[in-house]
Amino acid sequence: MMSALLDSRRPLVAAPMAGGPSTPALARAVAAAGAFPFLAGGNAAPEALAAQIAEVRALGAGFGVNLFVLPPRPPDREAFAAYAAELAEEAAAHGVALDPVPREDDDRYGEKLALLQAQPVPVVSFTFSQPPREDVASLQEVGSTVLASVTSPAEARAAEARGVDGLVVQGPAAGGHSAVHDPSRTPDPIATPALVAQVAGASTLPVIGAGGVDGPSSVRAILEAGAQAVAVGTMLLRTTEAGTSPTHRAALADPRFTGTILTRAFTGRPARSLRNGFAERHDASAPTGYPAVHRLTGPLRRAAGAAGDAERLHLWAGTGWRSAPEGSASEVIDRLAAGL
Ligand SMILES: Cc1cc2nc3c(=O)[nH]c(=O)nc-3n(C[C@H](O)[C@H](O)[C@H](O)COP(=O)(O)O)c2cc1C
């Protein structure tokens, strides 16, 4: 099947996954299997992103690049200081001292945007907040299709007003960060097909549905709800081609983890992770404030990851994590496409 919004043989998308999992090798494998690949520009240095783009461009297939939009959103200073104090002991257990001063940055958005304007890619998607209208227009002028991530009909209408070409509708079952535009709001539980239907009723734009896919029947349910394509993240995390860290990979297969949680504990923005000790201990007290909380906890999470300590690491996972297999990404895409 050919989708109009994305140039791929199958209505399946390898969702952008920052922090390692999205690699050029994963993009190559999913493109060969007929799905549409994304590179994750968030948290990547512009130079590293440029190198990944060059590698994927050489494949000659359609692909997308995802960027974080981070308008300044400093955390409450007192709440931040209290959280830093709360985490000090956990950090000390790994020999890490946390920086109690909140650090803001925009993830080098301007440099990454300039890269995509100078060396256009087929598709650009944005998450976390709305891209400025002029940025959307400038990318369209160089020939890119522009998508915005949304988690509600109201966000869909706001994105439409910015002039984007399509929407990535992310349900709260999704692994990793929620795209919710106001990170102090925790998205209400709703199944992805129901959310896709709501957004499709509120916007005229084509929709890609994402969140909670665990097999071909959930893919079909999202398509039947009105999506043109379905984006999957978690189902690809354990594949050979993904750049998922060894500690994260092992945790996804570890029977000791029995559920997921949507929490600000790791980064100050709601994100779905396996429910581990860190999430249990700090979910209730974590302040809103990305990237300040992300920067605060970063050294602790890096040390935990390197030490194989899955109880203190963000373990991004959607609700379908138990179905995520080992093996090649092309096998995952083939399996998800069954019956389409
Ligand atoms: C490890 C991981 C990293 C992610 N990083 C990003 C990202 O950089 N940008 C983004 O828009 N979404 C990101 N997401 C969300 C995915 O794009 C997608 O919405 C989600 O994986 C879909 O739900 P599923 O994991 O249940 O398939 C990430 C998800 C995971 C699991």
Overview of this protein structure:
With 340 residues, this protein is α/β, with parallel strands linked by helices. It has two domains: 1-70 and 106-242 and 321-340, Aldolase class I (TIM Barrel); 73-104 and 258-314, no CATH class. 36% of the residues lie in helices and 14% in strands. The protein has twelve helices and eleven strands. It has helices spanning 24-32, 46-57, 77-93, 109-118, 133-141, 153-161, 192-202, 216-224, 246-252, 277-282, 292-306, 329-336, and strands at residues 12-14, 36-40, 64-68, 123-127, 145-150, 166-170, 176-177, 207-210, 229-232, 260-263, 271-274. The strands form two sheets. It has an eight-stranded parallel β-barrel, surrounded by seven helices. Strand 4, helix 5 and strand 5 (145-150) form a beta-alpha-beta unit. Helix 1 packs parallel to helix 2 (46-57), helix 3 (77-93) packs parallel to helix 11 (292-306) and helix 6 crosses helix 7. It is globular, with a radius of gyration of 19 Å. The mean pLDDT is 97.
